[in-house]
Amino acid sequence: GTGGIHNTIHNYTEWGDEVLTSDWYWGAYSVLCNDNGRKLRTFRLFTDDLQWNQDDFAQHVEAIAARQDQVLVILNTPAHNPTGYSLSDEDWRQALGTLKEVAARSEKHVILLVDVSYLDFAGDEETSRSFFRHFENLPENLLVVVCYSMSKGFTMYGQRIGAMIGITSSPQIAQEFKDINQYTSRATWSNINRAGMQTLVTISQDAKLLQQFQAEQAEYFALIRDRAALFMQEAAEVELPVLPYRAGFFLSVPSRDSKAVCALMNRDNIFPVPLKAGVRLAVCAVTKAKMPGIATKLKAAWEQVEHA
């Protein structure tokens, strides 16, 4: 998955270009941009009433399109890291509408990278994947790149296996996508983990194994969903301001000094992660038995810092 993001930044932008993503983002995006001589630019993911911020998204897309030939946007959805947010169908219509407008009125190359790392833990299979239909009949100069990770869906952390899928209406661009990313992958890693690739193929081609795999996956999804539900219910009771959570491994609370909040939580042996915009809690790592009380303690720490 990370390799697909690297290849997209490396092959579809120029030295010094800006790459756009939301202000709540996985920290490696910035590292990947910096390592490739690019800069990460952010738009506000949410409005003040915690809806998809289409206006800010569009303004930043237009600003980038005005100064460079490539417009690369990274959207991590569904089950966004670090908030657990998933774009709705209407969010997708608005976001793609902006990208289509930019592509239609110029010869700019517009690239949408959809990071679906947490897709397999985003909910009902059909519903969570329905957004793919929005990628049909796109302009030729609008390329969609989907980056998938086996780390989450197959719980194979450390094996570093993923997929990079190009979606385009142009056969020529599809061939170019295959050629240049095969070349860059070879030059960067040589080859990826053979055992991981074989695991995916073996399970996918065996109906019995696939059924067993899907049952185990559903069990773990339900476990994470239940943990998050416990936290969100308690957060509502104590009026802790949590960002919209739909599914996934993480949820987040805005804070003006996340390091101070986390330091207070550490005293209770609770270890959330401080981010630039707030505090991230890993519901994938906290058992159901230990979840009760965390929202209350986080609210106390949050209030102590916010009202200092």
Automatic annotation (TrEMBL):
<dbReference type="Pfam" id="PF00155">
    <property type="entry name" value="Aminotran_1_2"/>
</dbReference>
<dbReference type="InterPro" id="IPR015421">
    <property type="entry name" value="PyrdxlP-dep_Trfase_major"/>
</dbReference>
<keyword id="KW-0032">Aminotransferase</keyword>
<dbReference type="InterPro" id="IPR015424">
    <property type="entry name" value="PyrdxlP-dep_Trfase"/>
</dbReference>
<dbReference type="GO" id="GO:0030170">
    <property type="term" value="F:pyridoxal phosphate binding"/>
</dbReference>
<dbReference type="InterPro" id="IPR004839">
    <property type="entry name" value="Aminotransferase_I/II_large"/>
</dbReference>
<dbReference type="InterPro" id="IPR000796">
    <property type="entry name" value="Asp_trans"/>
</dbReference>
<keyword id="KW-0808">Transferase</keyword>
<protein>
    <submittedName>
        <fullName>Aminotransferase, class I and II</fullName>
    </submittedName>
</protein>
<dbReference type="GO" id="GO:0006520">
    <property type="term" value="P:amino acid metabolic process"/>
</dbReference>
<comment type="similarity">
    <text>Belongs to the class-I pyridoxal-phosphate-dependent aminotransferase family.</text>
</comment>
<dbReference type="GO" id="GO:0008483">
    <property type="term" value="F:transaminase activity"/>
</dbReference>
<dbReference type="GO" id="GO:0042802">
    <property type="term" value="F:identical protein binding"/>
</dbReference>
<feature type="domain" description="Aminotransferase class I/classII large">
    <location>
        <begin position="15"/>
        <end position="296"/>
    </location>
</feature>
<comment type="subunit">
    <text>Homodimer.</text>
</comment>
<dbReference type="InterPro" id="IPR015422">
    <property type="entry name" value="PyrdxlP-dep_Trfase_small"/>
</dbReference>
<keyword id="KW-0663">Pyridoxal phosphate</keyword>
